[in-house]
Amino acid sequence: MKTSLSNVLLGVAQCILLLTCGVQSAAAQSLVNGSFELPALPGGYQYSPAAAGIGWAFSGSSGIQGNGSAWTAAPAPDGTQTAFIQGTGSMSQALLLSAGTYTLSFQAAWRSCCVAPYLQPLMISIDGAQIGGLVSPASTSFGNFNVTFPVATTGVHSVAFIGTDATDKTTFVDKVTLILNNAAGDVVWVDDSVPAGAVLASDGADVWNWVSANPQPFSGALAHQSTLAAAEHQHYFYAASATLQVEAGESLFAYVYLDPVNPPSELMLQWSDASWEHRAYWGANLIPWGIDGGAARRYMGALPLSGQWVRLQVPAAQVGLEGSSLNGMAYTLYGGRASWDYAGKTVAGALLPQTISFGALGNQTLGSGALTLSATASSGLPVSFSSLTAPVCTLSANTVTLIAAGTCSIRASQAGNGTYAPAPNVDQSFVITSGQLFAPAISYATGSYPLAVAVADFNGDGKLDVAVINDSSSTVSIFLGGGDGTLHLSATLSTGIFGSHIVTGDFNNDGKTDLAVSNIGSNTIGIYLGNGDGTFRLPIAISAGLAPGGLAVADLNGDGKQDLVVSNISSGNIVGHSITVLMGNGDGSFAAPVAYSTGTNPQDVAIADFNGDGKPDLIVANYDDSTLSVLFGNGDGMFAPRVNFATGFRPSLVGIADLNGDGKLDLAVVNSFGVSIHLGHGDGSFSAASNIVPSFSPDGMAIGDFTGDGIPDLASGNVFASNVGLFAGNGTGSFQVPTMFNVASGPIALAAASLRNNGALDLIVANRMSNVLSVLLNTLVAMPPATLSVRSGTAQSATIGTYYVTPLAVMVLDANGRALPGLVVTFTAPAVGAAGSFAGGQAVARAITDAFGIAAAPAFTANSSGGSFA
Asked: CA 716 to CA 298: how far, in whole Å?
């Protein structure tokens, strides 16, 4: 009998990413990134949720892959990437759709390894209700599939592709397009061509010019574009045999895209019912046709916004066309250029959909003055604003007054009128700070010469604790956290000679936090197994090569056991030129060390997947030869020979994050004169160094979003003074001039964590010259809400009494989709029925998010009841 873990991770509600891309009121519209082309992923594959940045929400065993990867079935029919759905994985996207009948078109194929006799059913759903299914694609070559379904009401609707075969089989999906066959209320007269029998004409240097791009058509495959001219110019058609009958109470519409570089001064629509004296115009009154103010020339308001498709709507009564049969239409401009698409009429009584464009708001500082808001509705109707957080911010018209530090949430709304239905509300939030990002430092006495810091939950109370290595006194100071930003010293542990680095992990899979300390002078790593109450057992000394320094922990071979990597530095007569890999046995012991060559005097090592193949790689900072070494992982705990590249002078510390928001991991490297930034290409290579050279000599580093704007920032210590510098990120891989914050003397090691678990990152700083630990609490009162998504662990099964092989893990992201490190995540198993337990039979376990926002639960063992559970 087996117990199965279903598609929602234990105790963590799976978050579906909603992506609204405007009401689909055109005849054909693609979903957001229906070809899965962002970010580029050549020759690799990426599971959920790391693949989430491309416009889809992936769940379970699903993601994206590039041509040439191990997953490839056949070359992608559009671009170089496809989505894949393995087993019972799924992918979804939520869109704001108008009422009508739609056709969902896509292409699908098998994975080449797994053709007949296997089947990989695929269910397609709208709002959770099945609308179609796929028994099997035709072959490993992509084939076309279509599903038609109705949408009864305008609103947000979720389209999903869901695997229904629990076995390990895979279907590929690409070129997903959503086509609106018949919008409720719309009768289309002009789309990819003019009506049957129509005669084309133009004047004023204009011509009929059908385009498929620049801009992309609002509907279908083609739009028609006016020629750029300085005065009045138009193109039109007449004598159409396929006429448009307009009845009482109906209105006429057309979509227009004004050239943002060359907008016109005026635009005009004209219709012919054997007379052309039916005109509506927007903008300046420059085209001298018809008597202004009547049906022959009706003013409709200001020009619409440029650079986007806008629906122009004209009640037929205002231009004298009720009861008329139309056989011609003209598109007229004064100056500039525009593109036109999708024209016809709206039947009486049907309200048109509209959407609001309301962009993200930057964080504000209390006392910096009022904030002016701007938003537009696709209907052209005015947008109103309201505050959802009156104690923090208030509104008068479109002006926000900042009242107090905290999160200000603003709602944009448009109530509609006799033509347009109410628009879905759009909410935006931003953080108001008190003016000083960190409160004054709080100091805690440590041992002699504190050199390194680690943060974790040592006693299982859900509050973050801190461990500090004291080099000269050969001790580790254990500080237990109060959950409110305070710490108290609870224990002092002995280390080997010259302890230099410390990491946390669960090395014996008992669900309790352990410590690993590198002892340069003893040539050992000390493993301190945790008791789960904030105390630790006596250290177990393991050999790790000569002069072990930098430490990193990860599961390098996917066996559910944590492994260690240590850099072997230069010390005394020893010239370091290697790193040592120690594979964990899962019981607190490690296999014999395996050494890999690096540059000279490797000071630090870090672990991440730099080339997108799903296998951990290593990055090493080589102090003496000013290089970085990349060692690509095989996924079995072994690594390819190093690839070296130059960095800043004498690198000592390397940090990993996506610094420019392109979905690829970048490097920040502390060196003797500053910080070197290397932007990742996603294939394991990096750009040449872009150097930040502050006015101080940096030491230690922490990366995180300290300012709450969704962009990674850098913090580094001024080791020869008594302050730390915060380099606010610009989101492009560049950083602002640092803001300095006072701490104690000699800041040398930094850690970022939310000691109050409120999402606001605090700084923990070890100060070597003053034997003090400084805590800088972030003044951000409340951060925008975080989201949880499944990283790994679903769906899988295990035999009773054995642990699930794939670790249960989630990713925590802020409102802008950026990783949130240093937060405590609680995993809770069901109390009854089919389930399991963490170490010691516990139903609850806690883990802290790492630099990538990922928290992994300790080993989870299936209980004695068979069945599925969540």
From this structure: 64
